[in-house]
Amino acid sequence: MIATFAVRRRKLFPADENLPMKILYQPRTPDILLSNVFGALSDPTRLHIVRLLLRTTEITCGDFEIAGAKSTLSHHFKTLREAGVTSTRVEGVQHFVSLRRDDLDARFPGLIATLTCAEEPF
Amino acid sequence: MIATFAVRRRKLFPADENLPMKILYQPRTPDILLSNVFGALSDPTRLHIVRLLLRTTEITCGDFEIAGAKSTLSHHFKTLREAGVTSTRVEGVQHFVSLRRDDLDARFPGLIATLTCAEEPF
DNA sequence: TCGATGGTTCGGGTACAATCGAACTAGTCT
DNA sequence: AGACTAGTTCGATTGTACCCGAACCATCGA
Description:
2 copies of one chain form a homodimer. By secondary structure, chain A is an alpha+beta fold. The first copy, chain A, has helices at 34-41, 44-56, 70-83, 101-107, 111-116; strands at residues 59-60, 86-91, 94-99. Chain A has 5 helices and 3 strands. Chain A binds a DNA duplex through helix 3.
């Protein structure tokens, strides 16, 4: 059985729906779920991104040579943001991503420490 | 294309291979990888198991009413053990599962604290 | 207004994970 | 030996995640 319900929205005609591309959802602090955070951090690429953010405060998608396709990287950043791990500040064309360090520390004390330790081969 | 290589081992003839069922692999402490630990903890059922283990020191698979099938539960315990989160002690027929608290604390300080906090709806 | 830049979204392929029932195994008890 | 218990393993199905290229969009500079 093939799902057919996802075809609804075709984007080729710009004005017929006004759901903007720039929503950038992120959960409120009390809504951050530990299992989601762990899920976001269970991917080696994303864990690497977060470890970078522990040292750099802010990065953009373009600051990466690591990953392959742009869309893949965008997907990882979205996953981190929607899990509540990062937040994104839009400035002109660039998206600056930072760790929600205080929020995470308030909600899950010890997590930041866990991430900081042990440099490992992922 | 359908994979055909997995058909090799049929178990209906007991003595033709002696790979025992009782291996119960778990990684040595320095081999525990953070991304694997996070992966194991990203499932709500397994996170719940681990939270239980923070209070109970040891449990058996039978101590659960939560999950559905026995095989599913067994799978979750295997995942936790192979990620390095738990260890299993066999005593007669029962398997006693416990948190590798010291190992985790040594390798990833703060992780246990993270798990201890915040009772949440998973 | 046109093109470049820095991303997001879509659609699809492929790989992995969760779940289950059925079959099996290994100990224990009678 | 036979039945019971506690769990593992197998095989299949279903669902989800990762990854990519193509299309799209919004902003900026010329």
